[in-house]
Write a structure and sequence with these properties.
Shape: elongated
Bound molecules: adenosine monophosphate, magnesium ion
Number of strands: 27
Distance between the termini: 30 Å
Strand order of the largest sheet: 15-12-16-20-19-17
Protein backbone atom coordinates (compact mmCIF):
# COMPACT_ATOMS: atom_id res chain seq x y z
CA UNK A 1 0.00 0.00 0.00
CA UNK A 2 1.47 3.37 -0.97
CA UNK A 3 0.82 6.78 0.57
CA UNK A 4 -1.50 9.41 -0.90
CA UNK A 5 1.56 11.52 -1.84
CA UNK A 6 3.31 8.63 -3.59
CA UNK A 7 0.17 7.74 -5.50
CA UNK A 8 -0.33 11.31 -6.65
CA UNK A 9 3.32 11.71 -7.64
CA UNK A 10 3.12 8.52 -9.74
CA UNK A 11 -0.02 9.68 -11.53
CA UNK A 12 1.27 13.19 -12.16
CA UNK A 13 4.60 11.77 -13.28
CA UNK A 14 2.74 9.92 -15.98
CA UNK A 15 0.31 12.45 -17.40
CA UNK A 16 1.51 15.14 -19.80
CA UNK A 17 0.33 18.55 -20.85
CA UNK A 18 -1.88 18.15 -23.94
CA UNK A 19 -1.52 19.92 -27.28
CA UNK A 20 -2.97 23.22 -28.42
CA UNK A 21 -6.16 24.12 -30.25
CA UNK A 22 -7.73 27.30 -31.60
CA UNK A 23 -11.14 27.74 -29.98
CA UNK A 24 -13.98 30.28 -29.91
CA UNK A 25 -13.34 32.48 -26.87
CA UNK A 26 -16.53 31.50 -25.07
CA UNK A 27 -15.58 27.81 -25.24
CA UNK A 28 -12.23 28.54 -23.56
CA UNK A 29 -13.46 29.28 -20.05
CA UNK A 30 -11.12 27.54 -17.61
CA UNK A 31 -8.57 26.65 -20.31
CA UNK A 32 -4.96 27.80 -20.34
CA UNK A 33 -3.85 30.31 -22.95
CA UNK A 34 -1.26 28.85 -25.33
CA UNK A 35 -0.18 32.12 -26.98
CA UNK A 36 0.86 35.62 -25.92
CA UNK A 37 -2.03 37.84 -26.98
CA UNK A 38 -0.86 41.17 -28.44
CA UNK A 39 -3.25 44.01 -29.08
CA UNK A 40 -3.54 45.16 -32.65
CA UNK A 41 -5.58 48.15 -31.51
CA UNK A 42 -5.76 50.61 -28.64
CA UNK A 43 -8.66 50.24 -26.25
CA UNK A 44 -10.33 52.67 -26.20
CA UNK A 45 -9.29 53.63 -29.73
CA UNK A 46 -9.75 57.41 -29.20
CA UNK A 47 -9.96 59.89 -26.33
CA UNK A 48 -13.63 59.82 -25.36
CA UNK A 49 -16.07 61.08 -22.81
CA UNK A 50 -16.53 59.20 -19.53
CA UNK A 51 -19.78 61.09 -18.87
CA UNK A 52 -22.84 62.53 -20.54
CA UNK A 53 -22.14 66.27 -20.65
CA UNK A 54 -20.49 69.04 -22.65
CA UNK A 55 -17.05 68.89 -24.24
CA UNK A 56 -15.39 72.19 -23.39
CA UNK A 57 -12.13 74.06 -23.06
CA UNK A 58 -11.39 73.90 -19.34
CA UNK A 59 -10.18 77.51 -19.51
CA UNK A 60 -13.72 78.59 -20.41
CA UNK A 61 -15.04 77.21 -17.11
CA UNK A 62 -12.61 79.01 -14.84
CA UNK A 63 -14.47 80.65 -11.95
CA UNK A 64 -17.80 79.07 -12.90
CA UNK A 65 -20.27 78.39 -10.07
CA UNK A 66 -24.03 78.24 -9.54
CA UNK A 67 -24.20 82.00 -8.97
CA UNK A 68 -22.06 82.95 -11.94
CA UNK A 69 -22.35 80.38 -14.71
CA UNK A 70 -20.06 80.52 -17.72
CA UNK A 71 -22.22 80.53 -20.84
CA UNK A 72 -21.01 78.68 -23.93
CA UNK A 73 -22.47 78.34 -27.43
CA UNK A 74 -23.50 74.73 -28.23
CA UNK A 75 -22.23 73.96 -31.74
CA UNK A 76 -22.94 70.22 -32.10
CA UNK A 77 -24.13 67.03 -30.40
CA UNK A 78 -22.13 63.81 -30.59
CA UNK A 79 -23.17 60.29 -29.54
CA UNK A 80 -21.06 57.18 -28.98
CA UNK A 81 -20.11 55.77 -32.38
CA UNK A 82 -20.03 59.15 -34.16
CA UNK A 83 -17.34 61.74 -34.66
CA UNK A 84 -18.10 65.46 -34.43
CA UNK A 85 -16.82 67.41 -37.42
CA UNK A 86 -16.73 70.60 -35.35
CA UNK A 87 -13.85 72.05 -33.37
CA UNK A 88 -14.49 73.37 -29.86
CA UNK A 89 -13.13 76.89 -29.99
CA UNK A 90 -13.07 79.24 -26.99
CA UNK A 91 -16.63 80.14 -25.99
CA UNK A 92 -18.18 77.02 -27.53
CA UNK A 93 -19.13 73.51 -26.37
CA UNK A 94 -20.26 70.23 -27.95
CA UNK A 95 -22.99 68.24 -26.25
CA UNK A 96 -21.45 64.76 -25.80
CA UNK A 97 -22.63 61.33 -24.69
CA UNK A 98 -20.62 58.74 -22.74
CA UNK A 99 -18.21 56.90 -25.04
CA UNK A 100 -18.35 59.48 -27.82
CA UNK A 101 -14.93 60.58 -29.15
CA UNK A 102 -13.81 63.94 -27.79
CA UNK A 103 -14.13 66.67 -30.45
CA UNK A 104 -11.04 68.60 -31.54
CA UNK A 105 -10.21 71.54 -29.35
CA UNK A 106 -11.93 70.25 -26.20
CA UNK A 107 -9.79 69.19 -23.25
CA UNK A 108 -12.46 68.20 -20.73
CA UNK A 109 -16.13 67.35 -20.23
CA UNK A 110 -18.54 69.15 -17.90
CA UNK A 111 -21.17 66.68 -16.67
CA UNK A 112 -24.86 67.45 -17.32
CA UNK A 113 -25.26 67.74 -13.54
CA UNK A 114 -22.72 70.58 -13.52
CA UNK A 115 -24.61 72.59 -16.15
CA UNK A 116 -27.97 74.36 -16.27
CA UNK A 117 -29.23 71.95 -18.94
CA UNK A 118 -32.11 70.67 -16.78
CA UNK A 119 -33.67 74.15 -16.77
CA UNK A 120 -33.44 74.55 -20.57
CA UNK A 121 -35.12 73.17 -23.64
CA UNK A 122 -33.34 70.05 -24.98
CA UNK A 123 -31.88 71.68 -28.07
CA UNK A 124 -30.78 74.96 -26.48
CA UNK A 125 -28.15 76.85 -28.42
CA UNK A 126 -26.44 77.92 -25.22
CA UNK A 127 -25.42 76.14 -22.03
CA UNK A 128 -24.46 77.48 -18.61
CA UNK A 129 -21.53 75.73 -16.92
CA UNK A 130 -22.04 75.76 -13.13
CA UNK A 131 -18.73 74.32 -11.97
CA UNK A 132 -15.09 74.55 -12.98
CA UNK A 133 -13.67 71.53 -14.78
CA UNK A 134 -9.97 70.84 -14.85
CA UNK A 135 -8.16 69.89 -18.05
CA UNK A 136 -8.49 66.14 -18.66
CA UNK A 137 -11.56 65.86 -16.44
CA UNK A 138 -14.13 63.13 -17.38
CA UNK A 139 -12.06 61.96 -20.31
CA UNK A 140 -10.99 58.38 -21.00
CA UNK A 141 -7.68 58.47 -22.83
CA UNK A 142 -7.01 56.43 -25.97
CA UNK A 143 -5.21 53.22 -25.00
CA UNK A 144 -5.70 53.75 -21.26
CA UNK A 145 -7.04 50.19 -20.94
CA UNK A 146 -4.95 48.46 -23.60
CA UNK A 147 -2.09 50.09 -25.55
CA UNK A 148 -1.64 48.99 -29.13
CA UNK A 149 1.21 46.50 -29.64
CA UNK A 150 1.47 45.42 -26.00
CA UNK A 151 1.12 41.84 -24.65
CA UNK A 152 -2.30 41.96 -23.03
CA UNK A 153 -2.61 38.35 -21.91
CA UNK A 154 0.40 36.09 -21.45
CA UNK A 155 0.71 32.44 -22.32
CA UNK A 156 -0.20 30.32 -19.29
CA UNK A 157 -3.03 32.53 -18.06
CA UNK A 158 -6.21 30.65 -17.13
CA UNK A 159 -9.14 32.09 -19.06
CA UNK A 160 -11.84 33.44 -16.76
CA UNK A 161 -14.81 35.61 -17.75
CA UNK A 162 -12.54 38.69 -17.49
CA UNK A 163 -10.10 37.28 -20.06
CA UNK A 164 -13.03 36.44 -22.37
CA UNK A 165 -14.04 40.09 -22.07
CA UNK A 166 -10.52 41.39 -22.75
CA UNK A 167 -10.20 39.14 -25.84
CA UNK A 168 -13.57 40.35 -27.08
CA UNK A 169 -12.52 43.99 -26.59
CA UNK A 170 -9.60 43.28 -28.93
CA UNK A 171 -11.97 41.83 -31.50
CA UNK A 172 -10.59 38.31 -31.08
CA UNK A 173 -13.24 35.66 -31.71
CA UNK A 174 -10.91 32.69 -31.26
CA UNK A 175 -7.73 32.09 -29.31
CA UNK A 176 -5.09 29.37 -28.93
CA UNK A 177 -5.47 27.29 -25.76
CA UNK A 178 -4.31 23.95 -24.40
CA UNK A 179 -7.03 21.52 -25.33
CA UNK A 180 -9.34 19.78 -22.90
CA UNK A 181 -8.69 16.13 -22.06
CA UNK A 182 -11.17 13.58 -23.36
CA UNK A 183 -11.93 11.22 -20.51
CA UNK A 184 -13.67 7.91 -21.16
CA UNK A 185 -15.68 6.49 -18.26
CA UNK A 186 -16.62 2.83 -17.89
CA UNK A 187 -18.72 1.50 -15.00
CA UNK A 188 -18.35 -2.14 -14.04
CA UNK A 189 -20.76 -4.40 -12.19
CA UNK A 190 -23.40 -7.07 -12.77
CA UNK A 191 -25.63 -5.19 -10.34
CA UNK A 192 -25.74 -1.95 -12.35
CA UNK A 193 -28.76 -0.66 -14.24
CA UNK A 194 -28.72 2.28 -16.68
CA UNK A 195 -30.68 5.42 -15.83
CA UNK A 196 -34.15 5.43 -17.30
CA UNK A 197 -34.52 1.65 -16.98
CA UNK A 198 -36.80 0.00 -14.38
CA UNK A 199 -34.90 -1.16 -11.29
CA UNK A 200 -35.19 -4.93 -10.73
CA UNK A 201 -34.83 -6.31 -7.20
CA UNK A 202 -31.20 -6.60 -6.19
CA UNK A 203 -29.94 -4.06 -8.72
CA UNK A 204 -28.80 -0.45 -8.33
CA UNK A 205 -28.54 2.47 -10.69
CA UNK A 206 -25.18 3.31 -12.20
CA UNK A 207 -24.51 6.54 -10.37
CA UNK A 208 -20.71 6.53 -10.61
CA UNK A 209 -20.58 7.18 -14.34
CA UNK A 210 -22.55 10.36 -13.77
CA UNK A 211 -20.79 11.67 -10.66
CA UNK A 212 -17.46 11.00 -12.37
CA UNK A 213 -18.56 12.53 -15.69
CA UNK A 214 -19.83 15.57 -13.80
CA UNK A 215 -16.46 15.92 -12.06
CA UNK A 216 -14.63 15.61 -15.40
CA UNK A 217 -16.80 18.36 -16.84
CA UNK A 218 -16.52 20.49 -13.74
CA UNK A 219 -12.74 20.49 -13.90
CA UNK A 220 -12.64 21.22 -17.62
CA UNK A 221 -12.43 17.81 -19.29
CA UNK A 222 -14.74 16.26 -21.87
CA UNK A 223 -16.41 13.15 -20.48
CA UNK A 224 -17.42 10.24 -22.66
CA UNK A 225 -19.65 7.77 -20.86
CA UNK A 226 -18.96 4.28 -22.20
CA UNK A 227 -21.80 2.61 -20.30
CA UNK A 228 -21.68 -0.47 -18.13
CA UNK A 229 -19.36 -3.46 -18.43
CA UNK A 230 -20.37 -6.66 -16.72
CA UNK A 231 -18.08 -8.50 -14.32
CA UNK A 232 -16.40 -10.70 -16.89
CA UNK A 233 -13.34 -10.24 -19.05
CA UNK A 234 -15.09 -10.17 -22.41
CA UNK A 235 -17.51 -7.46 -21.38
CA UNK A 236 -14.72 -5.38 -19.85
CA UNK A 237 -12.47 -5.72 -22.88
CA UNK A 238 -15.37 -4.74 -25.15
CA UNK A 239 -16.17 -1.74 -22.93
CA UNK A 240 -12.58 -0.54 -22.78
CA UNK A 241 -12.19 -0.89 -26.55
CA UNK A 242 -14.71 1.94 -26.98
CA UNK A 243 -12.52 4.34 -25.02
CA UNK A 244 -9.13 3.77 -26.56
CA UNK A 245 -9.10 7.12 -28.34
CA UNK A 246 -9.38 9.01 -25.04
CA UNK A 247 -6.63 10.91 -23.20
CA UNK A 248 -7.56 9.13 -19.98
CA UNK A 249 -9.64 6.12 -19.07
CA UNK A 250 -11.56 5.81 -15.85
CA UNK A 251 -13.25 2.66 -14.67
CA UNK A 252 -15.23 2.36 -11.49
CA UNK A 253 -15.62 -0.78 -9.44
CA UNK A 254 -14.11 -4.20 -9.81
CA UNK A 255 -10.84 -3.34 -8.09
CA UNK A 256 -11.51 -4.82 -4.65
CA UNK A 257 -10.61 -8.38 -3.66
CA UNK A 258 -14.05 -9.90 -4.35
CA UNK A 259 -14.58 -12.90 -6.62
CA UNK A 260 -15.88 -10.77 -9.47
CA UNK A 261 -13.33 -8.00 -9.33
CA UNK A 262 -11.80 -8.73 -12.71
CA UNK A 263 -10.75 -5.18 -13.61
CA UNK A 264 -7.21 -5.68 -12.29
CA UNK A 265 -6.73 -8.87 -14.33
CA UNK A 266 -7.95 -7.26 -17.52
CA UNK A 267 -5.85 -4.17 -16.93
CA UNK A 268 -2.76 -6.25 -16.39
CA UNK A 269 -3.39 -7.95 -19.74
CA UNK A 270 -4.31 -4.81 -21.67
CA UNK A 271 -1.58 -2.63 -20.25
CA UNK A 272 0.36 -2.23 -17.03
CA UNK A 273 -0.67 -1.59 -13.45
CA UNK A 274 1.59 0.95 -11.74
CA UNK A 275 0.01 0.61 -8.30
CA UNK A 276 -3.03 -0.78 -6.58
CA UNK A 277 -4.23 0.24 -3.09
CA UNK A 278 -3.48 3.51 -1.37
CA UNK A 279 -3.22 4.10 2.38
CA UNK A 280 -6.41 6.10 2.61
CA UNK A 281 -10.04 5.78 3.70
CA UNK A 282 -12.27 5.71 1.84
CA UNK A 283 -10.62 4.85 -1.47
CA UNK A 284 -8.07 2.18 -0.59
CA UNK A 285 -8.57 -0.06 -3.66
CA UNK A 286 -7.50 2.57 -6.18
CA UNK A 287 -5.62 1.24 -9.19
CA UNK A 288 -3.46 3.21 -11.61
CA UNK A 289 -1.72 2.13 -14.74
CA UNK A 290 -1.77 2.42 -18.49
CA UNK A 291 -3.79 0.77 -21.20
CA UNK A 292 -2.59 0.26 -24.75
CA UNK A 293 -4.60 2.35 -27.11
CA UNK A 294 -4.34 3.65 -30.63
CA UNK A 295 -2.72 6.97 -31.38
CA UNK A 296 -2.94 9.03 -34.56
CA UNK A 297 -2.07 7.03 -37.67
CA UNK A 298 -2.66 3.81 -35.77
CA UNK A 299 0.41 4.04 -33.52
CA UNK A 300 0.36 2.38 -30.11
CA UNK A 301 -0.24 4.81 -27.31
CA UNK A 302 -0.34 4.21 -23.57
CA UNK A 303 -3.43 5.78 -22.04
CA UNK A 304 -3.35 6.59 -18.35
CA UNK A 305 -6.01 4.58 -16.58
CA UNK A 306 -7.48 5.13 -13.17
CA UNK A 307 -9.42 2.26 -11.69
CA UNK A 308 -11.58 3.98 -9.12
CA UNK A 309 -13.18 1.98 -6.33
CA UNK A 310 -16.86 1.18 -6.90
CA UNK A 311 -18.28 2.67 -3.74
CA UNK A 312 -19.86 5.96 -4.77
CA UNK A 313 -18.11 8.10 -2.13
CA UNK A 314 -14.77 6.38 -2.75
CA UNK A 315 -14.92 6.99 -6.47
CA UNK A 316 -15.75 10.68 -6.05
CA UNK A 317 -13.17 11.18 -3.35
CA UNK A 318 -10.36 9.43 -5.19
CA UNK A 319 -11.31 11.52 -8.22
CA UNK A 320 -10.95 14.70 -6.18
CA UNK A 321 -7.57 13.64 -4.85
CA UNK A 322 -5.99 12.05 -7.92
CA UNK A 323 -7.95 12.60 -11.13
CA UNK A 324 -8.60 16.30 -10.62
CA UNK A 325 -4.87 17.20 -10.39
CA UNK A 326 -4.16 14.95 -13.39
CA UNK A 327 -6.82 16.68 -15.49
CA UNK A 328 -5.56 20.10 -14.43
CA UNK A 329 -2.00 19.15 -15.34
CA UNK A 330 -3.10 17.89 -18.76
CA UNK A 331 -4.83 21.24 -19.28
CA UNK A 332 -1.56 23.03 -18.58
CA UNK A 333 -2.53 24.40 -15.18
CA UNK A 334 0.13 25.02 -12.57
CA UNK A 335 -1.94 25.17 -9.43
CA UNK A 336 -3.05 21.59 -8.81
CA UNK A 337 -3.72 21.35 -5.09
CA UNK A 338 -6.75 22.40 -3.17
CA UNK A 339 -6.56 24.97 -0.38
CA UNK A 340 -6.59 23.63 3.18
CA UNK A 341 -7.57 25.33 6.41
CA UNK A 342 -6.89 24.45 10.04
CA UNK A 343 -10.19 23.71 11.73
CA UNK A 344 -11.35 22.57 15.14
CA UNK A 345 -13.06 19.23 14.62
CA UNK A 346 -16.38 18.90 16.41
CA UNK A 347 -16.63 15.10 16.36
CA UNK A 348 -14.26 12.41 17.57
CA UNK A 349 -12.86 10.24 14.78
CA UNK A 350 -11.27 6.85 15.46
CA UNK A 351 -8.66 5.60 12.99
CA UNK A 352 -8.42 1.83 13.39
CA UNK A 353 -6.17 0.77 10.53
CA UNK A 354 -3.48 3.41 10.02
CA UNK A 355 -4.90 4.88 6.84
CA UNK A 356 -5.40 8.59 6.12
CA UNK A 357 -9.07 9.32 6.63
CA UNK A 358 -10.80 11.95 4.52
CA UNK A 359 -13.93 12.64 6.55
CA UNK A 360 -16.74 14.53 4.86
CA UNK A 361 -17.27 17.70 6.85
CA UNK A 362 -19.23 20.90 6.94
CA UNK A 363 -16.77 23.73 7.59
CA UNK A 364 -17.96 27.00 9.07
CA UNK A 365 -16.11 30.05 10.34
CA UNK A 366 -17.12 31.40 13.75
CA UNK A 367 -15.29 34.20 15.52
CA UNK A 368 -12.29 34.05 13.18
CA UNK A 369 -11.88 30.27 13.65
CA UNK A 370 -12.84 27.40 11.34
CA UNK A 371 -14.89 24.52 12.76
CA UNK A 372 -15.48 21.19 11.00
CA UNK A 373 -18.48 19.02 11.79
CA UNK A 374 -18.86 15.60 10.18
CA UNK A 375 -21.75 15.30 7.74
CA UNK A 376 -23.08 12.24 9.59
CA UNK A 377 -22.44 8.53 8.95
CA UNK A 378 -19.22 8.16 6.97
CA UNK A 379 -19.90 4.90 5.10
CA UNK A 380 -18.39 4.88 1.60
CA UNK A 381 -21.79 4.16 0.11
CA UNK A 382 -23.39 7.27 1.62
CA UNK A 383 -23.17 9.56 -1.38
CA UNK A 384 -25.28 12.27 0.22
CA UNK A 385 -22.32 12.89 2.57
CA UNK A 386 -20.43 14.27 -0.44
CA UNK A 387 -23.33 16.46 -1.32
CA UNK A 388 -23.50 17.91 2.22
CA UNK A 389 -19.75 18.40 2.62
CA UNK A 390 -17.79 21.52 1.74
CA UNK A 391 -14.53 20.05 3.00
CA UNK A 392 -12.62 16.87 3.73
CA UNK A 393 -11.24 16.69 7.28
CA UNK A 394 -7.89 14.90 7.18
CA UNK A 395 -7.15 12.40 9.96
CA UNK A 396 -3.46 11.44 9.63
CA UNK A 397 -2.55 7.77 9.20
CA UNK A 398 -0.31 7.82 12.28
CA UNK A 399 -3.09 8.94 14.65
CA UNK A 400 -5.38 6.29 16.11
CA UNK A 401 -7.89 8.87 17.29
CA UNK A 402 -8.65 12.54 16.89
CA UNK A 403 -10.83 13.88 19.69
CA UNK A 404 -13.48 16.55 19.30
CA UNK A 405 -11.83 19.92 19.99
CA UNK A 406 -8.51 19.03 18.37
CA UNK A 407 -7.32 20.96 15.33
CA UNK A 408 -7.12 19.15 11.99
CA UNK A 409 -6.40 20.15 8.41
CA UNK A 410 -9.42 20.36 6.14
CA UNK A 411 -9.13 20.25 2.37
CA UNK A 412 -11.73 22.69 1.10
CA UNK A 413 -14.00 21.55 -1.71
CA UNK A 414 -16.14 24.63 -1.73
CA UNK A 415 -15.66 28.29 -0.92
CA UNK A 416 -18.82 30.28 -0.52
CA UNK A 417 -21.45 28.04 -2.03
CA UNK A 418 -19.87 26.98 -5.31
CA UNK A 419 -17.92 23.73 -5.29
CA UNK A 420 -15.07 25.11 -7.34
P1 LIG B 1 -16.84 -2.97 -6.35
O1 LIG B 1 -15.64 -2.08 -6.20
O2 LIG B 1 -17.13 -3.33 -7.74
O3 LIG B 1 -16.73 -4.15 -5.45
O4 LIG B 1 -18.07 -2.11 -5.85
C1 LIG B 1 -18.15 -1.65 -4.52
C2 LIG B 1 -19.52 -1.11 -4.23
O5 LIG B 1 -19.80 -0.03 -5.08
C3 LIG B 1 -20.63 -2.11 -4.47
O6 LIG B 1 -21.59 -1.96 -3.45
C4 LIG B 1 -21.17 -1.71 -5.80
O7 LIG B 1 -22.53 -2.08 -5.97
C5 LIG B 1 -21.02 -0.22 -5.79
N1 LIG B 1 -20.87 0.29 -7.14
C6 LIG B 1 -19.98 -0.15 -8.05
N2 LIG B 1 -20.11 0.52 -9.21
C7 LIG B 1 -21.11 1.41 -9.03
C8 LIG B 1 -21.72 2.38 -9.87
N3 LIG B 1 -21.31 2.57 -11.13
N4 LIG B 1 -22.72 3.12 -9.37
C9 LIG B 1 -23.12 2.93 -8.08
N5 LIG B 1 -22.58 2.05 -7.27
C10 LIG B 1 -21.60 1.27 -7.70
MG1 LIG C 1 -18.22 -4.61 -8.74
Amino acid sequence: MISVEEALAKILGYVEVLGEEESPILDCLGQVLAEDVYSSISVPPLDNSAMDGYAVNSGDTRGANEKSPRFLRVIDTVAAGSISGREVEPGTAVRIMTGAPLPKGADSVARFEDTDEASRLKSAAEIGILEEVAAGCNIRRAGEDIAQGKVVLSKGVVISPSEVGVLASLGRSTVKVIRRPRVAILATGDELVSLGEPLPVGKIYNSNSYSVAALVKHYGGIPKILGIARDNEDSLVAGLSRGLDADMLITSGGVSVGDYDVVKDVLAKQGEIAFWTVRMKPGKPLAFGTIRGVGRAGTVRNIPHLGLPGNPVSSMLTFELFVRPAILKMMGKKSLSRPTVDAVIEDTVVNSDSRRIFARAVVKKRGGQYFARLTGPQGSGILTSMSLANGLAIIPEDKTRVAAGETVQVMMLDWGGFKA
